[in-house]
Specification:
It is globular and about 45 Å long. The chain is built from nine helices and 13 strands. The protein has an eight-stranded mixed β-sheet, covered by helices on one side. A five-stranded mixed β-sheet has the order 6-7-8-10-9, covered by helices on one side. The longest helix is centred in the middle third of the chain and has 27 residues. The chain is of the alpha/beta class.
Length: about 300
């Protein structure tokens, strides 16, 4: 199955070069709002991917450079059965469109899209595929950028256990979608079961801490001032022993990204769900989100939710 899925993934990604998402430009012409945008763990090809939310985010957020910090496509999920709805293809098209409009896009594959690791040093529609990168900020600081799975003990030494854990995580996400639907009907804000567990289960906290410390050691070895990664689906920005550690989070649960402002400041953007009172009729009634596709102009276009911002 893997031999079939890998070329299908490449063909699907490259297919975005032949089409475009019609409608309103992402941002008016001129200087992008941000110097750099970091996204990871989107998991296109997985039913857990929140592609519609990401499309609204990408429509309203432009940057001079965009880092795709791994697990953008979920090859593990696709190996279990092909799932690629139009919204996932639209995300690929939207990213490719940003490249055509002048953004530099750097793709650093992770463990879920490891099939792209054989393409280090090549380009897909202007997207550079690299193993790691060193990003220099506007104020001259250097940050190591990588997915981070190489510093995950389970991924390195017990990959079968990682796949088992991935299946358990998918089940947790399924339960979370049910809980989210119930809370939405009750007018309650979004709440993540697995994020709650990560904060409170001692072993999970220990694993996250070990992961962060390993990345910090690598940043120190590389003689850089910080490290930006993904992998653990836990957005963070903190100083650890003099190294600035940043994690982009994910687009399965937390809906987070890291941005660099033009003065070199970093910030976590949390694309949280709006309260029920602020939702459109279509959202309240669980109608599909229509995003500049022109397929059904009779239905309302959902406005983008406002991001919650957190200084990094």
């Amino acid at each position: 199955m893997t031999q079939i899925v890998q070329p299908l993934c490449i063909e699907t990604i490259m297919g975005g070069l032949m089409t475009d998402v019609s409608g309103k430009d992402d941002q008016p012409d001129g200087k992008p709002a941000f110097r750099t945008l970091f996204l990871s763990d989107i998991h296109l090809g997985s039913k857990a991917c929140q592609a519609a939310q990401l499309l609204t985010f990408l429509r309203d957020h432009d940057a001079e450079t965009i880092y795709l910090v791994g697990d953008i496509v979920d090859g593990w999920a696709l190996n279990g059965g092909w799932y690629w709805p139009q919204s996932h293809n639209d995300v690929v098209q939207k990213i490719l469109r940003k490249s055509r409009k002048g953004a530099r896009i750097i793709y650093l594959p992770g463990n879920h899209d490891e099939f792209l690791r054989q393409y280090y040093g090549t380009h897909f529609g202007g997207i550079e595929v690299q193993e790691t990168a060193v990003h220099e900020t506007a104020d001259g600081k250097r940050y190591l950028v990588l997915h981070g799975d190489a510093f995950d003990f389970v991924i390195r030494h017990a990959k079968w256990l990682a796949h088992l854990g991935d299946a358990a995580y998918d089940f947790a996400i399924f339960c979370n979608r049910i809980a989210t639907a119930v809370r939405r009907r009750m007018g309650l804000p979004y709440w993540s079961i697995s994020a709650w567990a990560k904060n409170r289960v001692k072993n999970a906290v220990s694993v996250i801490s070990d992961f962060e410390e390993a990345l910090v050691k690598e940043a120190r070895r590389m003689d850089v001032q910080g490290v930006i990664c993904g992998h653990i689906h836990y957005a963070a920005s903190r100083d650890i022993d003099g190294i600035h550690y940043l994690n982009t989070g994910d687009w399965v649960e937390s809906l987070t990204a890291i941005v660099e402002h033009h003065d070199g400041r970093f910030e976590i953007l949390r694309w949280a769900e709006k309260p029920l009172a602020e939702k459109t009729w279509a959202e309240k009634n669980d109608e599909p989100v229509i995003l500049s596709l022109g397929e059904n102009p009779a239905k309302p276009v959902n406005p983008a939710p406002l991001p919650l911002r957190e200084a990094a």
